[in-house]
Design brief:
The complex is a heterodimer of chains A (115) and B (114). Chain A has 115 residues and is mainly beta. Chain A is built from no helices and eleven strands. In chain A, the strands form two sheets. In chain A, strands 2, 4, 5, 6, 9, 10 and 11 form a seven-stranded mixed sheet that branches. Chain A has a four-stranded antiparallel sheet with strand order 1-3-8-7, with no helix packed on it. The termini of chain A are far apart. The model of chain A has no long low-confidence stretch (mean pLDDT 90). Chain B is mainly β. Chain B is built from no helices and eleven strands. In chain B, strands 2, 4, 5, 9, 10 and 11 form a six-stranded mixed sheet that branches. In chain B, strands 1-3-8-7-6 form a five-stranded antiparallel sheet, with no helix packed on it. Chain B is globular, with a radius of gyration of 14 Å. The termini of chain B are far apart. The chains are: A mainly beta (115), B mainly beta (114). At the A-B interface, β9 and β10 of A face β4, β5 and β9 of B.
């Protein structure tokens, strides 16, 4: 499989559940990103992992916790979510090193519904 | 703080028209600018990436230009087709010395009707 893959594609969970979103990239990139996309809002960066930099958006609640075990895999662990967390969660990857283009490639997204 | 604005927010045109989508940014010290397409409920697909030293990039019916000094980029779509219907987003990456994290615009929602 090529490109950036995300699983599951759709997820419905209750507010007391714990679930994880998975992202995998097959592009040889060394940076991975989580974005949240809510209806009629701009794309919101949540977390970035790379060899050069780790970035956390300070406005992201602690009920979202990222994990990046290696440069090809990225997880987003979810627990005690709220209905307003329902959104499309997008994963992206890029090369991140001096001289690189940093061109981002996105996965298909996970549509999350919190009931 | 970089701000990216896309105008218009929505556009509806008949098939065959040539289109111009606009992206403006407040800080001209950029590394590059990337245009994406997003179909409803799907991920983003990269269309074109323009480095700060470049003036334009072309791919098929798409042409993206960059005027760093005025903080503007345009995406030109020639001979539009119904299959071009999607949301188009631009993302600006900061220049050397800053984080490489891009700032996205809100997008232009395009409908091309037969």
């Amino acid at each position: 499989e090529t490109g950036v893959t995300q699983t599951p594609r759709h997820l419905v969970m209750g507010m007391t559940n714990k679930k994880s979103l998975k992202c995998e990239q097959h592009l040889g990139h060394n940076a991975m990103y989580w974005y949240k996309q809510s209806a009629k809002k701009p794309l919101e960066l949540m977390f970035v992992y790379s060899l050069e930099e780790r970035v956390e958006n300070n406005s992201v609640p602690s009920r979202f916790s990222p994990e990046c075990p290696n440069s090809s895999h990225l997880f987003l662990h979810l627990h005690t979510l709220q209905p307003e967390d329902s959104a499309l969660y997008l994963c992206a990857s890029s090369q991140a090193r001096t001289g690189a283009k940093y061109e981002q490639y996105f996965g298909p997204g996970t549509r999350l519904t919190v009931t | 703080k970089q701000e990216v604005t896309q105008i218009p927010a929505a556009l509806s045109v008949p098939e065959g028209e040539n289109l111009v989508l606009n992206c403006s940014f407040t800080d001209s010290a950029i590394y590059n600018l990337q245009w994406f397409r997003q179909d409803p409920g799907k991920g983003l697909t990269s269309l074109l990436l323009i480095q700060s030293s470049q003036r334009e990039q072309t791919s098929g019916r798409l042409n993206a230009s960059l005027d760093k000094s005025s903080g503007r980029s345009t995406l030109y779509i020639a001979a539009s087709q119904p299959g071009d219907s999607a949301t188009y987003l631009c993302a600006v990456r900061p220049g050397a010395g800053g984080s490489y994290i891009p700032t996205f615009g809100r997008g232009t929602s395009l409908i091309v009707h037969p």
